[in-house]
Amino acid sequence: MEEFIVQQPAPVRISSERAVKMIALRGVVVFPGQAVHFDLARDKSVLALNKAMDEQRDIFLVAQKHAGTVNPGPKDIYRVGTLSRVKQIIKLPNDTVRVLVQGLERMEIVNYVSLVPYFEVTLATLPLVHSELFLMEAVRRKVVDQFEQYRKLDHKLPPDADSFIKVSDPIGFVGFMGVHVFKNVDEKQKLLGLTEEYAQYEEIYLYLSRECEILAVEKKISQKVRQNIDKNQREYYLREQIKVIHDELGDTGDEVAEYRERAKKKKLPKHALDKVNKEISKMERMSPTSPESAVSRTYIEWILDLPWHEMSKETQDLKAAQKMLDEDHYGIEKVKERIVEYLAVTRLTKELSGPILCFVGPPGVGKTSIVASIARASGRKLVTMSLGGVRDEAEIRGHRRTYIGALPGRIVNGMRLAETVNPVFLLDEIDKMSSDFRGDPASAMLEVLDPNQNKFFKDHYLEIDYNLSKVMFVTTANTLDSIAPPLLDRMEIIELSGYTYEEKLQIAKRYLIPKQVKANGLKEKSVLIPDDVIRKIIASYTRESGVRNLEREISAVCRKVAVKIVNGDAGADSVYEVTEKELEEFLGVEKFLLDKGAEADEIGTATGLAWTSVGGVTLTIEVALIAGGKGDIILTGSLGDVMKESCQAAMSLVKSRADRYQIEHDAFKNTDVHIHFPEGATPKDGPSAGITIATALLSAFSGRKVRKTVAMTGEVTLRGKVLPIGGLKEKSLAVFRTGVKKIIVPLENKKDVKDIPAEVLDTLEVVYADNIDTVFENAII
């Protein structure tokens, strides 16, 4: 901060012909003989000040009529102001300048010489007209007496006020009154503009009289409040003061009365009503402008805005609910059947005492949309809460009111948005929650999802019990691995696996194509995409378990058709049929070629099956033998610890069966083994590749080929027992897409084969193996 003391020569006498720099002030009126300081921030004002300083001249200061005017013009500025001398300039941060000036002479604007880049005006002196001596003495005495009374009531006057009352200088006296007594800018400007000495004193007397009456009423209110306060109840001073002010103004406290009326109409539970009344009484004792009052007001409104008894009218017709589910979703019959069962039990028991539903499956299979269908079929409102990335417990339970800016958690906020006590509450991506030093949100969810606890759910902000037992909570997840076991125990898992080609075809025809035709501004039935073209899109341009990318590709086709219609290459009223030849023009070259497996039976190569969060995939395992080695095992392909151990176990298994398959034992000692999993950038782990690794190793050491039409999945023990695996349906869909004709699965997974779509089973031969020898017999030539 820089400070400058301005030294100037004696002021030059201003005539009406000489232009003077002018500054329009906001909320400030400068009087002759008075020192006033103010801040300047407008570029126009700072430039005028600097120019006046450079020319070593005084500056004209005048008030603008409205402080809110940013760029005032002549019509926005008063005519009468004060020619002033700058005494001190202090540069403040943010390009602001603080100026101390001494008022010299009252003057009036004659004409504006310049408006930009700063104001320049010509001025005329506004002399003071003296009144008769006896008349002035009389009014002066009245002013002195009235000021004495005012000084007794107002204790904010500067200590040197007496010196200004006793002097006979009218300019200094009027200036003091204008600066220190008059409060409103318009009243100050009116005083400055009076040209007669008597009129100035009369205006001061009238103002003092009015202010004395106001201060007397304020003092009366304060005295009345003090009389009503008991010495042992000083803490109620604020409440009594507000009460007296309400009495004086005739105000009955509408806000408090409104809160009490709302609480009465809301029919709150007793514990909530007691809490609200206590908070209202607390707020009543506070100043409306205090921060504590705002906190109480927000808390009361949250409780009153929450639903306590309001319920949606539920659909009683299960057939109608089944019809809605069929309209919204194709296939997934078991899922829809379980939803109808859930709704039926709810109708009979009149309560939600069953488990929480959790839909698990890869992206794009319709987990979130089926929850929306549940809400529509049951006649309830839908509330969605995404849990992806949530790592703070306060997101669930809220913050305690001791924190600044505290608010309830997202559960209570969702109930407020639902406006009913029985919505369908979707907790999306529950497997994406994490924890850190701020707490574990998964632990907080235990209370929310437990039917025995959520009747008394307590948000940290509300600090009262809130009943969540009528809420239908439904969760979604891509995988169960990251969900905490106690939380998983409270949910019923419903798996939504990937769709077959035929299911995707029907979904595209029934839902995706009509949706995208409408979204891209095309007329209904103006685009025809034959079944063969849709199958081509599914097989060559998407590779997923769901239909999300399929919808994107269909949208791209619709956009291309829209371009042709706009350009006149296709008729707007005709039906445009998309052909297979046009797919490359619309969607580019094929993104995925149908994997038909190996072109021929090979040695040291086997095809396995793996499960991922986006569905099943095929996994090729390659084994290469390096002669002249020391029996080392080299593993590549970004493998996890479990798969590394599977490789070790498979190697030991093959060594133990060397005699059975005519393999020399020295081959293991003098040969390094390299086991490679292609697509090394993709991390791989899991307990289902054991039999595939063992098959590739046996093929490499025995020199026998592996059948190209066989794929397999299963873990193996050192004794050769084949262990069961999970995700068989997803893996079978992956095989179906590659054209493999035979799959080898663990015998204990025979019960899971019924979940595989008939369309897939019709094209596959399923071999059940409980021993590794069965695998070798069917896979190795």
Description:
The radius of gyration is 43 Å and the shape is elongated. It is of the alpha/beta class and 781 residues long. The strands form six sheets. The protein has a seven-stranded mixed beta sheet. Strands 2-4-5-6-7 form a five-stranded mixed beta barrel. The model is unreliable at 4-16 (pLDDT under 50).
Provide a compact summary of the structure.
This protein is an alpha/beta fold and 781 residues long.
Tally of DSSP β-strands: 25
Q: How would you state the average pLDDT, rounded?
A: 83
Query: Tally the helices: what do you get?
Result: 27
Structural class label:
alpha/beta
Please state how the strands of the largest beta sheet are arranged side by side: 19-20-18-17-21-24-25
Helix content, binned percent = 40-55%
The N- to C-terminal Cα distance equals 91 Å
Q: Biggest sheet, in brief?
A: 7 strands, mixed
Question: Layout of helices and strands, plus pairs?
Answer:
Layout: E1 2-5, E2 19-25, E3 35-40, H1 43-54, E4 59-63, E5 80-92, E6 96-114, E7 119-125, H2 133-153, H3 161-166, H4 170-180, H5 185-193, H6 197-228, H7 237-249, H8 254-266, H9 270-284, H10 291-305, H11 318-328, H12 333-349, E8 356-360, H13 367-378, E9 382-386, H14 394-397, H15 410-418, E10 424-428, H16 441-449, E11 457-458, E12 465-466, E13 472-477, H17 485-488, E14 491-495, H18 501-519, E15 527-528, H19 531-541, H20 548-567, E16 576-577, H21 580-587, E17 605-612, E18 615-627, E19 633-636, H22 641-656, H23 666-669, E20 671-676, H24 690-702, E21 710-712, E22 715-716, E23 722-723, H25 728-738, E24 742-746, H26 758-761, E25 765-769, H27 772-779
Parallel strand pairs: 2-4, 8-13, 8-14, 9-10, 10-13, 15-16, 17-21, 19-20, 21-24, 24-25
Antiparallel strand pairs: 1-5, 2-7, 3-6, 4-5, 5-6, 6-7, 11-12, 17-18, 18-20, 22-23
Helix pairs in contact: 2-6, 4-5, 6-7, 8-9, 9-10, 11-12, 11-13, 18-19, 18-20, 22-24, 24-27
